[in-house]
Amino acid sequence: xxxxxxxxxxxxxxxxxxxxxxxxxxxxxxxxxxxxxxxxxxxxxxxxxxxxxxxxxxxxxxxxxxxxxxxxxxxxxxxxxxxxxxxxxxxxxxxxxxxxxxxxxxxxxxx
Length: 111
Description:
By secondary structure, the chain is mainly alpha-helical. Helix content is 62%, strand content 9%. The protein has four helices and two strands. It has helices at residues 6-18, 33-41, 50-73, 86-108, and strands at residues 26-30, 77-81. A two-stranded parallel ribbon has the order 1-2. The longest helix is centred in the middle third of the chain and has 24 residues, at 50-73. Residues 104-111 have low confidence and may be disordered.
């Protein structure tokens, strides 16, 4: 996904703001590490050992935690459970986005 670092997130924020299309919500698809390890080791690739995957997850967490905090602090982070079928996760994303839009609209009208 993009952005991968806090610096990239801040650059993205500035770029879309200049374009007049500011970011109003960011979807974070949350999947427990154990599920990620199970999914990736099940692919059968030689480089997908449990140790390698856990190291990748560690690096990913170090890089993305500041991004999540950045958008959470701005009330833009929408965390969605990423475990389940594609259709289930898509439905959760749609619901989160609709709820966020509804909340943003109400705030925008001074409610």
